[in-house]
Amino acid sequence: MSRAILSCSGLDKPEGSVAREVAIRGAAATGSEIVCPVLMNRAPARYRKLLTESALIVVDGCSTRCASRLAAGQEAKVDRKILISDAVKTSDMALESSLSLGPAGLALAQSIVDDLVRNLNAPAASLEPDTAFEPPTEYLVVTHDKFEFRIPAVDYLFNENDVWIRVLDGVARVGISDYMQQSLTDINFFDPPKPEGVVEQFGELGSLESAKAVFEVIAPASGTVTTVNSAVVANPGLINEDPYGSGWLVEMRLTHWSEDRSLLQDGAAYAEIVTRKAEEA
Amino acid sequence: MSEATFMGVPRDRIPWFPTIDYSKCTFCMECDTFCPHRVFERREGDRKLVVANPNNCVVFCRACSKTCGPEALSFPDKPGIIALIKELHTVESAQ
């Protein structure tokens, strides 16, 4: 599949200048076509065919995420995301304060591009999902105005951050609730946790992104990530279509289940939480 | 309107809410526009935005800070809050 790269216009912050540089160098290193954010906003038809046929790399300078929002507004299929302000924090480089890139900014841009190329060339994780999980058959329904939020009546447990967990023989499958997927609206990106990554209860299991928000997936239990749902990485819309079935996010091997279990809610208790949240929102 | 508990722990005993760094905030109001829980309120004067309803904030949610270009919003140390909730949960469960 061909690739395209969209960055923010990058004109008012040093991180934006790095974003532009990453787009320019990244396009050359990966054979991607550059998408101009201003032209995409002004005349989206110019890029419609390209975005339909290409895997899109989105580069945002800061958390305002102009490029991401632009991509979400055009319903572009996002393959990778880079947030320069995060990259600055995780690198030991002190970015120059000027808008013209200095040696540190250029070095950071090159290291981000090197990482991007390495990641694109890395083989996909080959872990297979557990096939024993069946989708729910019986639901509780919370109704608020014109909205209906479904909650599996049995087998699923929830934390108050709208993340579900289903456990079979010490293996757990995790996803987000129908209420949260509707709150986020169309999810266009899933940034998964690392396979074999260890996470504590209430730690992060990656994040989801829509035009509306970035949602951190709060781990309902402690354990090791064994499998990431590659179908959802490729098509995050599955989360909206089937949040308790094919839209699951990760599988985990649990480490402190009996202790973690006491902090989770069953379907009926979570239905009360959804009722309250829907009324407050 | 704020919830009474989080994970069985009284919400007002969990110090999880955003803090605004007024030296960075540009009062763009992206966070207030985004947050559906009315954590922020707009005011007259120098500080045009304040954290008016901290207990409305969903514990562990940091979504508002991810809308903040100038990175003016910060949250408490998460592991410390997790430890506090587990400790308070044990106390509440024993009562």
What is the makeup of the main sheet of chain B?
A: 2 strands, antiparallel
CATH fold group of the largest domain in chain A: OB fold (Dihydrolipoamide Acetyltransferase, E2P)
Distance from N terminus to C terminus of chain A (CA atoms, Å) equals 41 Å
Strand proportion of chain A, as a percent range, falls in 25-35%
Shape of chain B: elongated
Written overview of the protein:
The complex is a heterodimer of chains A (281) and B (95). By secondary structure, chain A is of the alpha+beta class. Chain A has helices at residues 14-30, 37-42, 45-53, 66-73, 84-90, 103-121, 178-184, 230-234, 237-241, 257-261, 267-280; strands spanning 2-7, 33-35, 54-60, 78-83, 139-144, 147-152, 157-158, 163-168, 171-176, 187-191, 198-199, 204-210, 214-218, 223-228, 250-254. In chain A, a hairpin with a 2-residue loop joins strand 8 and strand 9 (171-176). In chain A, helix 1 (14-30) crosses helix 6. With 95 residues, chain B is an alpha+beta fold. Chain B has a single domain, classed as 2-Layer Sandwich (Alpha-Beta Plaits), CATH 3.30.70. Chain B has two helices and six strands; from the N terminus they run βββαβββα. Chain B has helices at 30-34, 78-94, and strands at 5-6, 9-10, 19-20, 40-42, 49-51, 73-74. In chain B, the strands form three sheets. In chain B, strands 1-2 form a two-stranded antiparallel ribbon. In chain B, strands 3-6 form a two-stranded antiparallel sheet. A two-stranded antiparallel sheet of chain B has the order 4-5. In chain B, strand 1 and strand 2 form a beta hairpin. The longest helix of chain B is centred in the last third of the chain and has 17 residues, at 78-94. Chain B is elongated and about 45 Å long. The model of chain B has no long low-confidence stretch (mean pLDDT 90). The interface between A and B is medium-sized, with 25 and 30 residues.
What features would you highlight for this structure?
heterodimer; A: 281 residues; alpha+beta; OB fold (Dihydrolipoamide Acetyltransferase, E2P); 2 domains; six-stranded antiparallel sheet; four-stranded parallel sheet; 11 helices; 15 strands; globular; B: 95 residues; Alpha-Beta Plaits; two-stranded antiparallel ribbon; 2 helices; 6 strands; 23% helix
